[in-house]
Design goal:
Elements: H1 11-17, H2 44-60, H3 68-90, E1 94-96, E2 103-105, H4 108-125, H5 130-135
Antiparallel strand pairs: 1-2
Helix pairs in contact: 2-3, 3-4
Length: 152
Amino acid sequence: MGARGPISQPDNVRALRGNPGGRPTPKRVTAAPGVPDAPDWLDEEATAEWGRVVPDLDRLGVLAMVDRAVLATYCAAWSKFVQAEQLLQSDDLVAERRAGNGPAKNPAWQIWREAATTVAALAKELFLTPSARLRSVKPEADDGNEGEDILD
């Protein structure tokens, strides 16, 4: 379940509009920018997807070293999605059941649907969708004190 209520204003919009309500402004958790290395266990398709999205995410300034796991999961899910799509294109959409009880949908549909759901969810988190980019704000320049006072 997602967060309730409207999406909070980006920090730069809040600064321009002021704070007429006088509510305290939230402190954002930030991570040092950086480009993580691709894991060596990614298959060929996942590695190609890593190479496709990481340069653009780095150019947008939204990547940090801690994003390696979510990037790897996104790329691996993309690879599974492609494999399931290719299987569905080369095979019948309906398969005969083993017990001989008539036709059933191809089991690759389940893999396709789960991989597509994972790809779509992580694409939003990684700003890979147009709507996610419209809702985001490019991080400000690093002021050198990230993480300070994070637990205050």
